[in-house]
Records
---
Amino acid sequence: MIDQKTLAYINLYAVLGALENLCELAPEASALLTNKKPLSIGFDVKGGPAATITFYNGQCRMTDGCKKCDVKLPFGSPEKFNGLIDGTVTPIPTKGYLHIGFLLKDFTKLTDLLNKYMRPSEEDLKDPDFFKINTTLTLYVVGVAIAQIANQDEIGKFSAAHTADGSVLIGIDGGPAVEVRVKDHHFVTLKRRPEKFRAAMSFVDYETANALFNGTVNALTALGTGKIGMHGLNSMLDNINRILDRVSIYLA
Amino acid sequence: MSKAAEKKSYPCYSTAKSDEWYARAAKVIPSGVYGHLGPAEGQFIPVNRWPRFMEKAKGSYFWDVDGNRYIDYMCAYGPNVLGYCDPDVDEAARKQMELGNCTTSPSKIMVECAELLTDTVASIDWAFFAKNGNDATQGAILTARAYTHKKKLIFFNGFYHGVSPMVQKIDYPGVTPEDVANNLYVDWDDIEGFKQLVAENKDEIAALIAQPYDHGNFYDNKFPKEGFWQEIRKICTDNGILIIVDDVRTGFRLDLAGSDHYFGFEADLICFCKALANGYNMSAFCGKEFLKGAASGLSYTGSYWMSAVPFAACIACINKMKKINAPALFKELGTEFTEGLKKAGAEHGFDLVVSGAPALFYLRIANDDSLMIHQDWIAECVNRGLFLASHHNHFINASLTHEDINESLEIAEEAFKATKLLHPEIG
């Protein structure tokens, strides 16, 4: 049921893409990059996605493609790249050997930190600040994963083919949100609250969003109790919810 | 007192007890109320303005657990065709209940019911009874495959033909790619696309299953283009493809002789449910003589499929629909109501689009492309006692009176005013 190419898109854009938000949200992540020279790492997956993460000034940003990067990590297949995320594959850079120290130390610490926030212990989740960061990061990861599944996964493409054009807001009331943009059945997710949208799915609080993402609350029940609100062209949300079902398979 | 001063006002209802019952339900029933009657699939937006449980129903009204009365244009999503608790239907059901209902040997009333149905519906020679619409569409598909020994089915995009995996979609929970591997899809009214599909799958297609017109959700309902069904009939006949008409929703509201009759063609198999027995639980798939053998050979039955009470209700219901010429009445009442709605909407700056048959009208406020204004207006209506659906076709029932329509229009007008306050951008 899992397509490795789709998983590679999710792992790169949604999971590693969350590093940029981690640096914004978690001071310990930002601290790892402070007072360091700017550096960019390119991930080039044969038969799959390619993107560059640039680290600078306590922050990082992801851009498409990896033609201009200081360190280039090539992967022979989506499976190999997914192995990097699983921790079963150690990449060998084809460019930027001088920066191997950053890769082995700082980048690894950063991804360990991401892992800590994305796969938290029950104890960590009791800390309200940690809980908020975990929920926010999960929203971003899920939001970006929706677009990857809609564009790459065969069943996701079926849902995308039935989704009307426009923007969809998925967000927490008074908190973070993502904009899922649909144009000609192609999906793009922007990690921001859209000003205009055709449909919205909103969670009344962080707890509801967290519970939904972790599968401890059912979306339909939460809609019934008003913990999740929907508004607008709900046929878009219907299709996105079907894709959301598949997100949990890929991110399990 | 001036006429304006006499006008009743319709304050918003409290649905606090519905909230309480829903909280209880959610603990012991998946999603509280699953399916089309529930707040998610039923598109209750926002949920706290909608009733979730009823206390009682009569005629065109139901009362929720908070004691609020609603003029109901959803009619239990169709089964309420003569009015809730219709005295004639209920009396027939009560009499049969005294004789027996679910018994080892079926009642002879099943035969009388089949005779009445085959006399009423133009294109059919036999009736196979079941319980829900899904039983009927599944039975028809099995019959088509059994007769043709072919596996593929054509669907028009936007379809809904029940809940069995084979008629759901590949991205629905619990459905596997194998479940829908034999399904072919084409757009409604696309004759060329249909021809191409038939050519590409020559000798593999058992049947086309289709609603008589496109009454999907979230978009204006569409009648077929002139000559559409006649051309489809010819292509299917020429290629050995059976036509299954899913008349579950539209049956008897357009034409007592069947919706294929209404559109001037003949189905090979036709499915009925909602309007058959005024809420008593039964459905039927019916067909032409040449398919009776195939239907006879099916391994297809259920514990309650031959219960006698619904047959008694069905006979009373069909006879009453004939007596009052129900389709003509539905058309008249539906037209009166929807014309009134459009007029009231226009007076307040709302572009209310009405589509589909008047008996099953579909509503959409077209002032914005997100349907948010529409949803706000629907919530204002429902919360004042006019029960409409957000994005589903509606249903007229025979007990609806002109007074009900007038009251409904007053509520709708008040709802337009309230919605305008929420959306000052409407001129």
Note: The domain at 4-119 of chain A is CATH 3.30.1050.10 (Nonspecific Lipid-transfer Protein; Chain A).
---
Amino acid sequence: MKNVIRALGQLIASLFLFFLIGFAIAILLIQSNWLDMRFDSEYFVTVSLLTGAWLYFLRTFMNAKKLALWESARTTATLTISSIAIIVYVTISEGSLAILPSYIVRKALFLEETVTLVDMNQILLLVFPIGIAIIIGTLLKNKHQKVATENTGWNLLSRYQKFGTMFLYGVIAFFLLIYLGQGEIQDSLNQSIQYLKTADVEGFRDYLHSFGSLSAVISGLLMIFQSIIAPLPAFVITFANGLLFGWIGGAILSWSSAMAGAVLCFYLAKILGRPVVEKIVTKKALTWWDQFFEKYGKHAVFIARLVPVVSFDLVSYAAGVTSISFWQFFWATGLGQLPATLLYSYLGQNATSTVKILFFVFTIMIALAVLGMILRPKLQSLGKGKQGVKG
Amino acid sequence: MKRKSSVFIKFVILATLTMLVLSGCGSKSNNDTTAKAAKDEKKADQKVDNTVSKDNPIVVDKENKVVKVYATVNGKYLVSPTRHGLNWVEGKYGDQAVLKAYANPLKFNEALLEIGGVPAVEKGGDTSKEFETKANEKYILGDEVKVTVSWENAGKEYDINDVMVDSTGQKIVYKFGGNYDTQEAKMTGCYMCFDSCPAGITSNSTHPVGTFEGGHAEFHGNPDVLPADGTPLVLTYSIVK
């Protein structure tokens, strides 16, 4: 029971400390008229709270003691006092004490439709003293407790892995902040996701076209984005690139951006390690990949790239946790995705409607499946031969 | 092998037929949907609701030549400066205005046209005629629009100048800029801007383009007059001839 209370105290201390930091940053940023007209700084509180939760997770489950800022008396005191000073000074001097703090918190917690500013003010009046008391209590407890430095979890990671993990969180937090706070970017990203989800190639082509000279850059970034995070159909981007830039230009753009996405996924998997990759691609998918890799060895990536039904991103992530070298992965991916990229780009340039394109995709998939059936015995014997040599 | 090939050929034929049927069904269902939407629209046209509310956020009273718009107060801009008077909540800058509107600004544009308003730029019109240039500054053109505001227990119709604060002390004079095409393309959500604006349906002709951005004036809601955050209110628009 004591441990549960202690863990809960630590969690609240970490969340409250980061809540205060995000709060102070948001209040300062709102003072800039230019920024306030373009960006909802309130979401700094949201992302800051997530950061507190993330660091608490690393501290509790991976023993990342150095990252637990709320356990250091000096750091906690400095951050808490300076954050509260900023919040109080700015809101009192601007005459917005009764409105702005409650407005910021309500928006950051997505409670605009359910909580009034008056209610939020009352909640804050309760939260602040409780939060401060818990922070002080946690610091006093830590002072009297000797914590053994164990060589587990976080301490077992290399510097490269630690940096990679924190960098990845930083990138995700940054994109989340921009997505939540910047209306135009949020709207634009939602639109692109909608086009990709509905496989509306012409709509997506027009969407890319609306960026003018930046359309190729946006297309490339979206291809990389969908590779890393979103399970969206990349073939729509390839078709649209063919339609917009011609089949040669489109193919070059699609191929290179898909390569960049694949390389990023490959390295992310290496940085994060097998347990995290298992969470991203599911354990079942990773086991399937292990068997596939065992069967076809170095050629596994190349074969997987040729078959359109196998997820491109899954292969990239899964390859990162196998013994395949970067250059083997690079060449196999580059050559393996070439036929489909060229074909989709060519069809993108020449087909005019979504139905036609879907029809073509369907036909190509069937053709490839047939090809797979024909080549299967040969591939199997190749795999067996390899196993024989190994054995 | 022969048996497998014949199964595959059958599968390909079946798949092709399925695709054709599905695409046929798709276009049929699209037609059905369009027909249903048109029917619903016709029904909606026949049944005119004159009560302005969150579900019916814009009401056009052609007889009295006024447009009524439902909105709510955004508490933040009673104490912080902004360049937006009223924005659609779903627009790109929906949270950056003193008042939040609940209908697409294009409908507001159409409503002002219905009461006889002439915009500076009509749909598909020439944007070069949108502004009047005085001393190298661009001021919005179009019909002048009178704006009044009221809410439950307000006791009276307030002029927009009573509920908004301009740091320079000048009077706000809204003009019907139009900007249908810009708004349709960018969907910033702007109904009323505090300085002349190439995107707002109406904007303040007292201040030229870029006044707020340049730091020459600041605007916010009047906390001494406007009700608390979230309070619903009704704005009434009429064209000044």
Note: The interface with chain B takes residues 30, 33-34, 36-37, 40, 94-96, 99-100, 103, 107, 116-118, 183-184, 187, 355, 358-359, 362-363, 366, 370, 373 of chain A (CB under 8 Å).
